[in-house]
Amino acid sequence: MSLRDNVKSVLYRLYERRLLKKLDRSALPQHIAVIHDGHRRYAKKAGLPDYTASYRVGMDKVREFFGWVEELEIPAVTCWLLSHENLKRPAEELEPYYDVLIELFTSLPEALHGEATVQCVGSLDLLPDRLVDAAHELEAACPSGHRRITIALCYGGRQEIVDATKDLVRALAADGVPAEELADRVTADKLAEHMYVSDVPDPDLVIRTSGESRLSGFLLWQAAYAEFLFVDVYWPAFRRIDLLRSMRDFAGRTRRFGK
Fold first, then answer.
1. I need a surface site. Which of 81, 186, 218, 236 has the fewest CB within 10 A?
2. Confidence band of 148 (pLDDT split at 50, 70, 90)
């Protein structure tokens, strides 16, 4: 490491300490949702040989991120690691990414120290068996803990709402509710009970990396009153200091919840 890099590293650490010292812990979000965007653009900018190298850097960053939020005592995190639309990409991009995800899932139980409950949600039936097996093994290895981590795989917000509606209608029909009364029994509160993870509070903050200012269908129902932060850095280059800045920004906002 050059002298310049050493000086830069020291300055970043000092800045991190300053941010941490000034953070109002009581004003931090209780649930952070993250759209981990920018892997392919990072690969091109960094001159990496292929996207697989960028994916691996990004998943290493996910592990680091879980450690950072644990330090901040954030109770719940949702990570969108694969969208339904991503399945339209060429197989030569998807297959290596599946392998990197499996590596991540295999390593997470040890990294989480038994402190978290992990749940994988989305249209897992559309994914390769090896990836689904790894996701289920991760859930089995992390069945309980005071923190909640949700990993969205082959996830789409519209599909979640459709699935929740179907589940609610099936439940009402099973309870013997007549067909002519079904529509009146479909309410916001009842639908919320049938979302993929109904026992986790809605996210307070949604962060998207890579400078894109859109949700792309992420947590459409749950993020109705969330705060949003769109940061320019690509996910593989996301740093602890970027998270702390996001926490400072969130803590300084006045939430209105649609009022």
1. 186
2. very high
What span, in angstroms and rounded, lies between the C-alpha atoms of 31 and 206?
9
| Residue of 111, 121, 40, 33 lying closest to 77 (CA atoms) | 33
- Please identify which residue in the block is written with the tokens 């109770």: 75
Residue that has been written with the tokens 């749940």 in this structure: 119
Query: Where is pLDDT greater, at 92 or 12?
Result: 92
Domain count, the chain: 1
Report yes or no on 39 lying in a domain.
yes
Burial of 29 (0-12, 13-18, 19+ CB in 10 A): buried
Model pLDDT for residues 59-100, shown as the tens digit of each residue: 999 999 999 999 999 999 999 999 999 999 999 999 999 999
Which range marks the domain in which residue 75 is found? 28-157+203-250
Using the predicted structure, report yes or no on whether residue 115 has a pLDDT greater than 80: yes
Residue 5 lies in a domain: no
CATH number, residue 51: 3.40.1180.10
What DSSP character marks residue 226?
A: -
Catalytic residues: 37, 86
Per the CB < 8 A criterion, the answer to whether 122 and 196 are in contact is yes
